[in-house]
Structure formats: C-alpha cells, structure tokens
C-alpha cells in the first residue's frame, strides 16, 4: 500500500512503551534523530512491532508545524 | 516558548514552495532526511523563513503513524 | 506497507476536483456512502489517482468524532 | 448544530470499548463497513452512546488520507 | 447535532478571507480573543457564514497543545 | 521558540486531571471561556504545569471547525 502522506521516514524501533490502551513507539530515523509516535496497542500488536524492527514514521505534511528560535 | 508536542526536530530549510494561501516548507533534519510541512503563507512570512534558516519541525506524537513493509 | 491507522476503507474514486495546490478526492466506500479527502496535488499524481480506480480511505481513529441528533 | 466537517456519515453504534480515559466506539456506516472512533469517556457519556444508537461519524476531509495497492 | 469534541466555543464571525479552495474564518470568542479557522469554501457557503453571524469554534481536545514561556 | 500555529491563546491553568498516560489540562483564556487540552503526562511534567500557571493554548487553524445552530 502506498499512502498520500508526504512524510514516510524509514527508521528502526528503539523502544515501545505500552500503556493501557495506547503504546508509545520511539523510532530512530537517523543517528540521534528520534520520532515519538502514539498509536493504539492493538495497532502495535497487529503490526508486530518490536525493538530493532524496520518501520516507517508516517506524517501528513499539514500536521508538521514549523518553529524558530525567538531571538532569530 | 516551549510546547507540549513531543517531536521538536532541529533542521535547516532546504526549500520553500509558495502557493496561493499555503507554503510548502522542506526541512532537512539529518543528512538526506527531509520533512515536508505545509503552513499558511502568512505564518511563513511571520517566521521570516528562508532557505538555509535553522528551524524546528514540530509534530504531536499522536499525529505520527507507524507503517511496516507488508512482507514483514 | 501496512499502517497503524485503524480505518482503512476500500472504495472507488468517484471524482477528483483539482485545486491550485490540493485536490479533493471523493471515494465511494459503499453504495451511496462517500468520503471526501483533501490531499496535495502532487500526492494525487504520485498515486496516479483517476476516476474508477480502487483506493483506500485511511483515517486515524482519533480523527473521527461522534455526533448525535440533539433531540435524542 | 451543523459543522464544517465535510464527512458526516450516518451509522449505528456496534460496540463501545471503554478504557481508563478514552472509549473506542465502533460505528457501522453501511452493511459490513465500520469506522472506529476514539473519544474521551466523558464525551461518550455526555452523548449517551449505547449499542444500537443512531450516530454520525464526523471527519474533516483533510484528515482523510488516500492509499493504493502498490502493484497498481 | 451534538459532537464529541470537548471544545465548542460560542463566538461571532469577525472576518472571512476567501482563498481559491479554502476560507479563513476569524471568530471572536471573547472581547479581544480571536480564533482563526481554515475550512473549505464550500463548507463556509453551506454554513452561510457572514460577518457578525453567531457561530461556534469546535476543536478536539487532542488538537490543543500547551506552551509556556521559556524563562518560566 | 515561535511556532507557525495561528492560534496561540494566552491563559491560566484552571485544573489538571491526570490519567494513566495522558493529562487533561483546562485553560481559561478569558473570564468564563475555557479550552480543554489533552497532552501526555510526560509533557505536562516537562512543562511544569500547575494550577494558576500562565500558559498558551496552541491550535493550528486547520484543526478548528466552525459550527452553526441548525435553525439559523
């Protein structure tokens, strides 16, 4: 399946922190660059996520804000 | 200002593609790793965005999906 | 690719309404049940969308609100 | 109340799965076509949701992604 | 219709700025407190929005971030 | 840091309701006008949120829907 989201970043699962309903998934997309995702636990299980697994972080471009340092 | 969004990725503006109302901002967060953001043109101007400027890509963790290759 | 989004609804493209930057895609997921999506034009082209094509409408469960009639 | 969201799909509550803070609501919008929503438990109670109740699944068009099978 | 979104703020349309596909709607929810919304032009027309009209700004609680001043 | 989100509303924390993973933060942005935010508990701690603290409610304009009363 190919999705319309503009950001599909390849990475590796660094850690999974399970909650009651949701799971926090930490994905390393480059050395030292991590992206945190929160998905439902049932999704995490359905995708068979585990530490070290190759995954993609998928983000719609309209969900990315831009910020600058204020002294700029 | 410090925001509650979990993902605040430092990067550099690679390109800005202006539209009628929105602007597409391409941010390099690591060598070869780019994130595309769509914000309003008035926001891009207010932040004085320009190629080469240091910025942050800000994404809520609940806006990050995870995907895996299907043959996995 | 398999995504963590809970809603992946199979359907058929009924119409594509192109704008300057975005395209409106109308997807029929059941007889008489249509879902409208707005994606960037470049995404629509990259997915080679066309009327009659089989596609999926993908929506995160946290992006679905519930409403009831007020006299209920 | 009438909302600006483009997708207002009539359906029936098939199941409600309560969590600690959130509730998962499964809505059938056509025979065999279900949409999963996650809302806060307090919202679910305020709307008096129950199995069999007629509801609407409300989704902004910018929150709908499109996907295609990769061999297409 | 009653929606599951937690934030339903009563206000008055201060201005409508039409674009090609979208419209920017500025809503005053308290004296001096304005909220900007971007919706499709067809939604704005369907809701018959006009300056001075009483409306509601509707926002899901998961779409509200919190920020603090950094010297705090 | 200055963000591209159009809505940055100054307010005061009225209450914090902690859950297992998330926290509900109620922000008063004007007398009698409250905005509810759900963020992760770790974000709430990192921002050192507490009742009475001055904060900002940050919302992207594309996350604000507009609604009208139906008899309008």
Question: Helix and strand layout, with pairings?
Answer:
The structure is a homohexamer of 72-residue chains.
Chain A: E1 2-3, E2 7-18, E3 22-30, E4 33-40, H1 41-46, E5 54-59, E6 65-68
Antiparallel strand pairs in A: 2-3, 2-5, 3-4
Mean pLDDT reading of chain A? 93
**Which percent bin holds the helix content of chain A?**
under 10%
Assign the CATH topology of chain A. Answer: OB fold (Dihydrolipoamide Acetyltransferase, E2P)
| Domain module count of chain A | 1
SSE order of chain A in H/E notation?
EEEEHEE
The coarse silhouette of chain A is: globular
* Helical/strand content category of chain A: mainly beta
- Which residues of chain A form runs of ≥5 with pLDDT under 50? none
Largest interface: A-B, 44 and 44 residues
| N- to C-terminal distance of chain A | 41 Å
In short:
Six copies of one chain form a homohexamer. Chain A has 72 residues and is mainly β. Chain A has one helix at 41-46; strands spanning 2-3, 7-18, 22-30, 33-40, 54-59, 65-68.
């Amino acid at each position: 399946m190919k999705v319309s989201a503009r950001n599909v970043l390849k990475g590796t699962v660094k850690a999974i922190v399970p909650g009651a309903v949701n799971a926090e998934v930490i994905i390393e997309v480059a050395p030292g660059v991590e992206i945190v995702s929160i998905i439902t636990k049932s999704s995490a299980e359905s995708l068979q996520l585990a530490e070290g697994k190759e995954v993609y972080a998928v983000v719609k471009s309209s969900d990315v804000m831009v910020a600058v340092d204020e002294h700029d």
